Every structure is written in C-alpha cells, then in structure tokens.
Amino acid sequence: MPSENDSKVNLDTFIKKKLLKDAKRIRSKYPPISEKVDRIAKSLKVKRVYELGGSLKNLFSIKTKNYDKSPKFRYFLAVLLASQSSDFLVNLAKDFSRKNDLKLIQFSVHPQHLRVGLLSLKEIENKDDLSEIVNLLKSFRTSYRNDLEKLGSLIERV
Questions:
Q1: Distance between alpha carbon 90 and the CA centroid of its chain, in Å?
Q2: Per-residue model confidence (pLDDT) at position 1
Q3: Largest CA-CA distance found in the chain, in angstroms, rounded
Q4: 3-state SS of the chain: helix, strand, coil percent to 5?
Q5: Under a CB-based contact definition with an 8 Å cutoff, are residues 76 and 123 in contact?
Q6: Prior bond to 71 cis, omega within 30?
Q7: Left (φ > 0), alpha (ψ -120 to 50) or beta: where does 58 sit?
Q8: In this structure, what are the phi and psi dihedrals at residue 35, rounded to the nearest 5 degrees?
Q9: ∠ at Cα 13 (7, 19), nearest 5°?
Q10: Architecture of 4-157 per CATH?
Q11: Positions of E strands within the chain
C-alpha cells in the first residue's frame, strides 16, 4: 500500500511531466497567499508561478511552500477572472466560488505591471482530480464572463 509521502512525490513528478511541459515560468517575486485555518491566518510563500499553454491556456499553476512540514509544497491551479480586480467583481464571483469550494484571491500575476488581478484557485491534491479541476475552472471563467456581458448589456439599456 503506497504511503502518503509516495503519493505526494508522484503528484510532484506528475505535475512536472504533464502539467508544466508546455508552461512558461513567470519570473518575479510574489507576495504570500494567506488562508485561514481555525480562524488563524497562515501564509503560503509562493515559490513559482507558471502560465500554462496548449489545452490549458488561460490557466496558471502556482507552487507554494506549505506552512506545515508535510507535504513540503502545495500546488494550485488558477484561472484569471479579471485583470483588474475590484470589490464589485469579487462579489459577482463569490457565489460560484462558495458552491464549488474555490478560493478567490486578489493577486498580481505580473507584479511589475502594478495590477492586482482576480484569480480563482483550486488546490491539486490528487493527480486523478486534475481534469475535473480544469473543467471546473474553465466553466467558472465562462460563466463569470457571461455574467459580466449580461451586466454590461443591462447598463447599456439604461
């Protein structure tokens, strides 16, 4: 029976071989991502950010250092919902993200541009869940864009 450590090593090699083969690394220094654990804010130091290519275009892979000792790193798949985030856009995306257990963060993928984008994250815990996570993030982006278009057409009518 494989141990938990073996599955994390397999996940690491799987991500390197399958997910990041067409990816482009975005080089920069990034602020940590925080998450609440038992009402205490814990920070995840961002190690690397990759812009995925091929069939995974418009998705990002984010590798963070875990605040726990095991596993050493955590992997997230992210989709950019808006290149310029605002409180209104976060409220628009909040319902879908809560229903599907996605995290919304305001994060600058390209810090040199001084723009804080709105990203939706989902942690990759098992290599078998990857296609499900990709489909979920793509459908979220599509429905979010449709909601923005509907809102824009309502504003034009007024």
A1: 15
A2: 44
A3: 63
A4: 40, 30, 25
A5: yes
A6: yes
A7: left
A8: -140, 150
A9: 115
A10: 2-Layer Sandwich (3.30)
A11: 24-26, 33-37, 40-51, 59-65, 73-82, 103-107, 117-124
Q: How many residues are recorded in the chain?
A: 158
Indicate the SS3 state at residue 23. coil
Q: Does residue 34 contact residue 83 with C-beta atoms inside 8 Å?
A: no
Token couple for 136: 């979920």
Q: What is the Cα–Cα distance from 60 to 26, expressed in whole angstroms?
A: 10
The amino acid occupying position 31 is P
42: which residues sit within 8 A by CB, 6+ positions away? 34, 35, 36, 67
pLDDT tens-place string over residues 32-67: 898 888 889 999 999 999 999 888 888 999 999 988
